[in-house]
Amino acid sequence: LMAVHAATHLLAWRHPQARGAAGRCIGQTDLTVDLRKAKRLAHRIRSVARREQLPHEVTVSALRRAREVGRWLARWGWQVHVDARLNELDFGAWDGLPWSAIAWSGVQAWQDELLHHAPGGGESLAALAARVRSFLAEPAPAMRLVVTHGGWLNAWLHVPAGTTALAATDWPPAPPHMSLVRGAAQPRATKHAALRPAAMSICRAVRPPRRKSVVAWVADADHSFIATLFPPRSPP
């Protein structure tokens, strides 16, 4: 039977680490992924579904680093949907460039207006959050399984409906690659945007990264979303 209500809970995995992402601004640049890691994540998803008796149905982003996970699940008989609304933030002219090639003034402009500024002329966090909500509002099973991206996950968890501003210094790092995040499909707005919705939990213990400047952190991280927005002590 077709679902007539929006999903109430989401099980969301971040894709495996993409090849060639180190030191680059990667949003919708369609990088490849190690197929062994894609298979490993597919196994994890299948194990969770088996343990919790969930339907064998998953939705993945249209980018290869998520879509390859869906290909493995499809081989095992799963119903796999591809939905571009699960894609990472579009960084426009920045997308695919080394962070070192992006003018500091552009990064600073984004920090100053984190929610509504479109980095590289691409997509703002407000626009990303709007497509997150569009995806979550459509008819679907009560428990929905997805494979998506770090920026998408943060927009779901930290930019609920009603958010009017975000402080760059409070923006958290993305969940680790291949980690599972559980939560209410429609988190409630909080008084402070940096507070995580109570219903959310990251199903993997990780040591938080040290506080670094934008330039220092993005140079040595493999995030597919901006690694940090802590302003540097002095512009480079």
Keywords:
28% helix; alpha/beta; six-stranded mixed sheet; single chain; 6 helices
Oligomer: single chain
Which descriptor suits the 3D outline? globular
Gap between N and C termini: 57 Å
Largest sheet: 6 strands, mixed
Strand content: 5-15%
What string gives the helices and strands in order?
A: EHEHEHHEHEEH
Total count of strands = 6
CA radius of gyration: 17 Å
Summarize model confidence as the mean pLDDT.
Answer: 81
Enumerate the strands of the largest sheet in spatial order, edge to edge or round the barrel.
Answer: 3-2-4-1-5-6
* H/I helix tally: 6
Give the helix/strand class. alpha/beta
Low-confidence stretches: 190-236
Helical content stands at 25-40%
Q: Mind explaining what this structure looks like?
A:
The protein has a six-stranded mixed beta sheet. By secondary structure, the protein is an alpha/beta fold. The radius of gyration is 17 Å and the shape is globular. It is built from six helices and six strands. Helix 2 links the parallel strand 2 (57-60) and strand 3.
